[in-house]
Amino acid sequence: MTGFGGLEKRFDLVGIDPRGVGRSAPLTCPAGGVLRAEPVRLPESGRDLRRLRDRNRRLAASCRGWDAPLDSDSAARDLDLVRKALGERVVHLYGHSYGTLLGQEYAARFGRHVRAAVLDGVMDHSASRRRFVVTAARAFEDAFGEFARWCARSRECGMDARGAYRQVVAKARAGRLEGDWTPHTVAATADAMLWTPSWGAVASFLRTLNAGRAWEEEREKPPATLNHADPVVCQDYAMRYRNAGELRADLAAARRAAPLVGYSPNAMRAVLACQGWPGPVRNPQSRAASTARNPLLLLQSRHDNATPAAWAREVGRQLGGGARLVLLDDWTHAVKVFNGGCEARIVNDYLVRLRAPRARCGSTPPDAR
C-alpha cells in the first residue's frame, strides 16, 4: 500500500463507510424526472423558493431511507462501535473536508478513546446560515483573486482574469455563450476548478467561452443521482429560509463580501438542498469541543474555497488549547496529507510522537496547463 506518506508502515488503516452511503443502508433515490429539474439559476423570488421546496419534497418522497438518522453525531456513534468491534482502546483519526465534522463529533463525545486526530480542511459546525454563506463567498473571492494575480504575471495566462470573468458572466446572462450556460453554472464551474491550483485550465475555460467557442470539458452540471451529502448537511445544519426575503438578504451579504464572484455556488448548493427537505435537524449547529487528552491537529490551506480558512480559525479558537492549527500557504481544497512531502512529515510527527507542529510548508506550484 502506497500513497499514505509512510503512515501505512506504522498504523493499521481502516476506512469507514458512513451510514447512508456505500453499503451502509444507502439512501436510494430513483428520482428520474425530479433530478432533471435541478436548478441552474439561483432562486430569489418567493415563487422560485416555493418551486425549490416542492422539488426537494418530491425528491425526499422518492428516496428510500430519507428519514433515517444520517447526521454526523449518529455517525460518530457508529464509529465508536467500529472501534469496539476492532477491540481497540484508543484510535487515531483522520478526517478530510466534511469528514472533519465527524472527527469533531467523535472527539467531543468519545474523546477518551482518541489518542490523536487530524482534521484536514475544517468544517465549522457553529456557523449560522448567514456566516456559512458569507465566509464561503469570501473564500471563493480570495481563491479567484489568487488565480487572477498569477494570471496577470504569468506568460502562460497573460490576461485580466477578473475582467474576463465579468465578461463571461455577462454573456451568460445575455444568452450569448456557446452552450446552455447561465451565470450560476459559470460560477459553479469556476468554483469547482479552483479546488485545485489547475490555473491553466481555469484560464482556458474563461478564454474559450469569451471567444464564443464551446468548452470541451464537462461543465458543472446537475448530478445524475442525489448528492449523498445533502441529507447529511440538512440534519447537521439549520439552513432553512422562512421566506424569500431571508434568501435575498443572505445573497446580498454574500455579494458585499465577494463583489466579483457574488457568492459560493458550493455553499449555496448545500443551503438550497435543505429548503423543503422534510425531517428534523437532528444535530444542529454547536460550538466545537473535545474531550481528547491530546490537542487535535487542524490542517488548513489558506486559500481553500471549499472549506474556508475562516472556518478552521474559528474551530481552533473554540477549542483553544485542545487544538493546534497549521495554516499552509496553499490553494488546494484540504491539504492531501497522504501524498508525501512536508505535510506528511507534520502528520507523521503528530500521530507518532504527538509533537506540536512547528514546520512551515511551501506552497504547491500552480499548474499552468
UniProtKB/TrEMBL annotation:
Q: Which SUPFAM superfamilies match?
A: alpha/beta-Hydrolases (SSF53474)
Domain Peptidase S33 tripeptidyl aminopeptidase-like C-terminal: where?
263-358
The AB hydrolase-1 domain is annotated at 7-156
Query: InterPro entries annotated for this entry?
Result: AB_hydrolase_1, AB_hydrolase_fold, Pept_S33_TAP-like_C, Serine_prot/Carboxylest_S33
GO MF: hydrolase activity
Asked if the Swiss-Prot or TrEMBL record annotates the protein with the keyword Repeat, the reply is no
Q: State the similarity comment.
A: Belongs to the peptidase S33 family.
List the protein's name: Pimeloyl-ACP methyl ester carboxylesterase
Q: Which organism is it from?
A: Actinomadura namibiensis
